[in-house]
Design brief:
GO molecular function, one term: ATP binding
Radius of gyration: 18 Å
Order of helices and strands: EEEHEEHEHHHHEHEEH
Distance between the termini: 22 Å
Family: Belongs to the ABC transporter superfamily.
Keywords: ATP-binding, Nucleotide-binding, Transport
Number of helices: 8
CATH superfamily: P-loop containing nucleotide triphosphate hydrolases
Mean pLDDT: 92
Strand content: 15-25%
Shape: globular
Low-confidence stretches: none
CATH class: Alpha Beta
Pfam family, one: ABC_tran
Protein name: Putative ABC transport system ATP-binding protein
CATH architecture: 3-Layer(aba) Sandwich
Number of domains: 1
Largest sheet: 5 strands, parallel
Number of strands: 9
Strand order of the largest sheet: 6-7-8-3-9
Length: about 230
């Protein structure tokens, strides 16, 4: 699923040492991975490389047998839209759109994710909206909020919208960058359980980043980014 070999990343070519230096990282299909490390250890940088948002300075970044470092910017953007759902730390929702509009907008950038939904529905006109509603309900956002502007929702409610947007169209890889940082302990645990349920339904691999190590036991495997880089 994910295979990194001899990956380094520098923000500037003139930097004396890389921000990220990973000899090898392998993540199998269907795993739920907890990636942790202190602030500044490169967690968000690694996620951006896995998603093809940033390009590794050197090495091989293979996702679904595609080496992202050899793809053009356009091809990499298409690959990300088709195969990767990303839950951003600050959610990156469009505040003037409703939850349903935010979620279905993602499918307009990916023909393959859109087709997955349309194939399952007899009513092509409403298929995307129905899938968005299903995901919102599954993630705990009830119908009374589905048609409100996202800007009027609480942080916890916006978080659920961001997760539903990532899962729509069943992408093979879900990346979550500190999505629970604004929640209390009880809500963090319940939200992660909902994430796991949707990941299982979508048959998606989940890479979840947090500095909160109390969440570690909930995942199949944990990876300490500091230790990973010390193996170089």
């Amino acid at each position: 699923m994910i295979n990194l070999k001899n990956v380094t990343f520098k923000w500037h070519k003139s930097d004396s040492s890389p921000t990220l230096n990973i000899k090898e990282l392998v993540i199998e299909k269907g795993e739920h991975i907890f990636l942790h490390g202190p602030s500044g250890s490169g967690k968000s940088t690694l996620l951006a490389i896995l998603a093809g948002i940033n390009t590794a300075t050197s090495g091989e970044v293979s996702i679904l047998d595609k080496n992202l470092t050899t793809l053009s910017n356009t091809t990499r953007d298409i690959f990300r839209a088709d195969h990767i759902g990303y839950i951003f730390q600050n959610f990156n929702l469009l505040p003037y759109l409703t939850p349903i509009e935010n979620i279905t907008l993602g499918c307009e950038f990916s023909k393959s994710r859109k087709q997955k939904i349309l194939k399952k529905s007899s009513n092509k006109n409403s298929a995307l909206q129905k899938e968005a509603i299903r995901l919102l309900n599954a993630l705990g956002l009830t119908a009374q909020y589905h048609h409100k502007d996202v800007a009027t929702l609480s942080i916890g409610q916006q978080q659920r919208v961001a997760a539903a947007r990532a899962f729509i169209g069943s992408p093979e890889l879900i990346i979550a960058d500190e999505p629970t940082s604004a929640l209390d302990t009880n809500n963090r645990g319940s939200f992660i359980k909902l994430l796991f349920e949707q990941a299982k339904l979508s048959n998606s691999t989940l890479v979840f980043v947090s500095h909160d190590e109390t969440l570690k036991p909930l995942f199949n495997r944990s990876i300490d980014l500091i230790n990973l880089q010390e193996q170089v």
